[in-house]
Design brief:
This protein has one domain. It is built from 14 helices and no strands. Helix 1 packs parallel to helix 13, helix 1 packs across helix 14 and helix 4 packs antiparallel against helix 6. The mean pLDDT is about 95.
Length: about 325
Amino acid sequence: MNNNRFNNIDFIRAIAIICVIATHVYSRHLFGEFNILIWNYLHFTIFMFIFCSGYVLSLRYEFEFNSWKQILSWYFKRSQRLIIPFYCYLFVHYLLWYLFPQFFDGLELNNSFNFIVQSIFLTGGVNANWLVLLFIQLTVLLPLLTKIYIKKIIIIFYILFSTFFTIYITFIPFSYNLSRYVMWIPWSLALLFSIYASRNKISNKKYISLAILSGILFYLFNFLHPFNKSLSLYDHKYPSDLYYLSYEFFITFILLSISQSSYLKNSFLQKSYEYISHKSYSLYFIHYIVLDFIFKVTNNYYLFSNIFIQFLLILSISLFTCWLLDKLSRILLI
């Protein structure tokens, strides 16, 4: 595990969270073809998050999943790290909405009891929790995949199963209501690739070749349009089908190739994307609250209606909030 490889991980994870924030800002400006185009093609981040987590975790725990006791202990610790920040976000956002309605609209929140229960148990409710559920599902899967990875017959069977399911939902209409229960299947292919990448040296040429193959597949889908859905990537996201995955693979492989560049070793630049990467999970939740605040308080100000100004404000305030929370936690622990 050399630092250079983890620098690559930090770079693409930082890009991913920045693009998530940009996607959510653009989603409030879906007027005009250009904005819709940008919003659509910003949907390439989930593969990056899965790849980064799978890559680091499979390296760190490659030799530690030796018993069910170890695996269950890891499940408990990992699930805590995923679920507690989400519950903190949910509580704080509801509290701010209740106490300061002049500053918060309760973005994507709802006061109904059923909505809150679904949000807590990840069965529905607030949109932010679907990613939490996906990572919990992949958490359950990771030790199992690392164990069967060396068993060729089993892993080939699993890859075929996941691939056929992904192809099936690409061409056959699939219920959105069921997506939360099966979304781990297509995304497990990304997790498998992260395990492979962590155990094998992949050259730039290989990443570029994989990007070309993924790009060709995505172009063919656009050209032939062989399914009964729109070409909007969002319409192929829940659950992710082959059209959506081919685009995410294409962008991710390009960025993995770029991440090898020596220009990214600049001290300030490297520290910046390392910090953003390290705080990416916190930023994911914090930016929802900041987004709510910015859209509420700047609603009547023309200057702040500019999408780029809003994005910069939300990103900078979210980063500052992360930094401030770090400082406060250190003070409280002293």
